[in-house]
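Long-time lurker. I teach an intro course on protein structure, and each term I like to show students one example going from raw sequence to a predicted 3D structure in token notation. This year I'd like something fresh instead of my usual example. Would anyone be willing to generate the tokens for the chain below so I can use it in lecture? Attribution to the forum is fine with me.
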Amino acid sequence: MYKGIRMKAISPIVATVLLIAIVILTAGIVNLWIQTFTTSSIEDIKKEATEQFVCSKSELLVNYPRYCNGLLSGIIYNKGWVSLGNLTFHVIYQNASHQNFELNDSSGNKLSLNPGDIAFFSINISDDYDFVILSTNCTGKFYNLKREQIDVC
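-- Reply from a regular --
Happy to contribute to a lecture. Here you go:
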């Protein structure tokens, strides 16, 4: 069929060497990808575990909550062992609407409480509130105030 053209295949030794080189190269690429993936996953898990451990040492209390003439006031106490920041009140109303109030210090910066610190708060809300939640920078750490727990003047 192919007169005058001599077809030559590569020798079995060269084919074996090429096959081994391709396998080693592929294994190296896969190994590099797995190392990068596991390193980033381990760092994410480590960060999350550290945050959960630190936040497990936090405790927040709201003392003397009082509602009078549209003003909700009281004292926030950081009873835990870690600093808490980004303190925000989430007011949930009876019609299922909500309103958020970020608490600031006297300088206008977001309020942060060190262990043992207290802070006074006063926010204007309407009287059809259902409950109030105080959240922090610690995920899952919040203080829930039901309407029945709040003194009314």
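Some talking points for your students: The radius of gyration is 31 Å. Residues 12-56 form the longest helix (45 residues).
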